[in-house]
Design brief:
The protein has 185 residues and is α+β, with helices and mostly antiparallel strands. Helices cover 57% and strands 15% of the residues. Helix 3 packs antiparallel against helix 4 (150-183).
């Protein structure tokens, strides 16, 4: 029973860490990546789909992304979706494709992006702490139902705390790496 609680705890905390890493990929660093457009959704034949399912999205160089829709009638919809996403640049529509020109990041932009990364990391830590609380609550229920002793309950809660500490450290390490990536010119 306790092993199930530990496994639940590990899986949930790993999920929180992976979600944070996924969010980190949407942040701009010195070099432009297509991941910055991951959250952009466009209307395609009546449903909202991710941009990369409606067009070819390529980083043609360090500061340019080119978007070539498979259906040219979607150009205006894609352009509006990018403007709505507020990624920091205006799309340039030449009638066949959309180009996004990203100017080099200023020091202020880098610090602002690093601040966003810290917020994402903090959200992940809150999620990990919530997972710890859920696991501890499950352990307390097992103790109340007399399925584990008080000593086993205490030891299990200590183990859950160790798992939590491990993931908080992982999150902090990932944040440090991302901040270095953002702040390096």
């Amino acid at each position: 029973m306790l092993e199930e609680v530990y496994q639940f705890c590990e899986e949930k905390m790993q999920g929180s860490h992976e979600h944070m890493l996924s969010n980190f990929r949407t942040l701009r660093t010195g070099r432009v990546t297509t991941k910055i457009l991951d959250n952009v959704r466009v209307e395609s034949y009546g449903s909202m789909v991710p941009l990369d399912q409606a067009a070819s999205v390529l980083a043609t160089d360090a500061t340019t992304i080119t978007i070539s829709p498979w259906d040219k009638t979607m150009l205006n919809g894609i352009e509006k979706a990018i403007q709505k996403a507020d990624i920091g640049v205006n799309p340039n529509n030449n009638g066949t494709e959309i180009k996004l020109f990203f100017p080099p990041m200023t020091v202020d932009q880098r610090h602002e992006t690093a601040k966003k990364a810290k917020g994402m990391a903090e959200d992940a830590k809150v999620a990990v702490r919530n997972d710890r609380k859920k696991a501890n609550d499950k352990i307390k229920v097992l103790e109340k139902d007399k399925l584990v002793t008080a000593d086993e309950s205490k030891a299990a809660q200590d183990k859950v705390q160790k798992i939590t500490d491990k993931f908080i450290t992982k999150i902090d390490d990932s944040l440090k790496t991302k901040e270095q990536d953002i702040l390096t010119v």
